[in-house]
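Q: Hi! First time doing this. I have a protein sequence and I read that you can turn it into a structure. Is that right? Here it is:
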Amino acid sequence: MNQIQTGQLIRQLRLARRMTQRTLAERIGVTDKAVSKWERGCGVPDVETLPILADVLQADVKALLSGSLDEAKSASGNLRRVCFFVCPVCGNVIAVRDDGRHLLLRAQGTAFEAAAAFGSRTAHRRA
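A: Yes, that's right. Below is the predicted 3D structure, encoded as structure tokens:
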């Protein structure tokens, strides 16, 4: 855990909810000096305070400890950039990336089989 990153995230989330340090402190049962200390990276909330703090800031305890809201990032790809559609005519599952490239996925038992490589503009075919 990086105290500075955790503090920056607490501050970011607090300001996004338009709360003062005093307001946050009152809601979680600590002093405003404690909140200031966390935000400056001079300390971290104790284990008993973390779940309450996460609830008030509408964040996950893991995110607070890591100092980052983007824990779902992957080095190999990002599913948040893909939309899936099911063709009502043929039942094909089509994945479309945010750059417009397509991938046709066809149901085969319990698994999906890639039927066309990304980059194919004619990925939608009747199976």
